[in-house]
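Query structure, 205 C-alpha cells:
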C-alpha cells in the first residue's frame, strides 16, 4: 500500500532515542549512541507554510512541551513561558494577528526580561536567547514527532497581547505553528536548501 505523505514524513523523523525526553526528573541511564538519528531530525525539519486541520495528539504535544522544559537558560533562571493555542476561539483570535498558515496548534513563546540574567560586562539581557533555545527544542521535537512546524517572527507582539490577554504581562518572542503539512503547499520552499558553505560559516583560528 502506498504510504501517505504524513506517514512518510513521520517515518523520516522517527528516532530511537525517545527516552531522552521521557522525564528529566528520572535519571537517564540508557542512551544509544552511534546512530545518525539526530542529524536526520535536523535535516528533515523545514518551515511549513501550509497545514491541514488534522489535530495534534496530546501525547505528541506533551512530549514537545517537555522538550521545551528541558532547555537550558542563562543562570538557569528560566524566564520563558509558553501558551498553547489550540481551542477554536483562541485560534480564531490569534489568526486575526497572523494566519499561522492554518496550523491547528500554535505555541506562543514569551519571556520576561526582569526574570532573565543580565550580563554584567555589557548589560545584555539573556531572555530572548533563552526563549530561542526553548523554541529550538520545541521545533526539533515536533519534527521528531512527525509534525511539520513553522517559526513565525513577522507579526506584531502587542497585537498578540491584545487578543490573548493571558500573555499581557510578557514580552512575546515568537509563534511556533505545529501540525501536519497540507498536500502540495506544505512542502519545503526553495530557501530550505540554501545554506552557506562551511567555509563561509566557519573560521578556524
Ligand atoms: C528566528 C526566525 C524567524 C522566522 N520568521 C519567519 C516568519 O515570520 N515568516 C516566515 O515565513 N518564515 C519565518 N522563518 C522561517 C525562515 O524563513 C526559514 O527558516 C528559512 O527560510 C530557511 O528555510 P527552512 O526553515 O525551510 O530550512 C523564521 C525563521 C527563524 C529561525
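Result returned for the query:
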Amino acid at each position: 500500500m502506498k504510504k501517505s505523505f504524513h506517514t512518510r514524513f513521520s517515518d523520516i523523523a522517527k528516532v530511537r532515542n525517545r527516552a531522552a525526553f521521557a522525564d528529566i526528573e528520572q535519571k537517564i541511564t540508557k542512551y544509544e549512541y552511534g546512530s545518525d538519528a539526530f542529524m536526520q531530525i535536523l535535516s528533515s525539519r523545514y518551515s511549513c507554510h501550509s497545514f491541514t486541520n488534522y489535530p495534534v495528539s496530546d501525547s505528541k504535544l506533551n512530549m514537545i512541551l517537555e522538550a521545551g522544559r528541558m532547555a537550558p537558560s542563562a543562570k538557569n533562571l528560566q524566564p520563558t513561558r509558553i501558551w498553547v493555542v489550540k481551542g477554536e476561539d483562541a485560534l480564531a483570535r490569534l489568526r486575526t494577528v497572523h494566519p499561522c498558515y492554518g496550523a491547528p496548534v500554535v505555541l506562543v513563546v514569551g519571556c520576561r526580561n526582569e526574570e532573565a540574567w543580565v550580563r554584567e560586562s555589557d548589560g545584555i539581557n539573556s531572555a530572548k536567547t533563552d526563549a530561542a533555545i526553548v523554541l529550538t527544542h520545541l521545533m526539533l521535537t515536533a519534527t521528531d514527532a512527525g509534525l511539520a512546524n513553522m517559526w513565525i517572527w513577522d507579526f506584531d507582539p502587542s497585537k498578540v497581547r491584545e487578543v490573548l490577554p493571558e500573555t499581557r504581562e510578557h514580552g512575546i518572542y515568537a509563534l511556533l505553528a505545529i501540525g501536519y503539512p497540507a498536500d502540495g503547499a506544505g512542502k519545503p520552499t526553495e530557501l530550505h536548501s540554501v545554506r552557506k558553505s562551511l567555509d563561509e560559516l566557519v573560521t578556524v583560528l
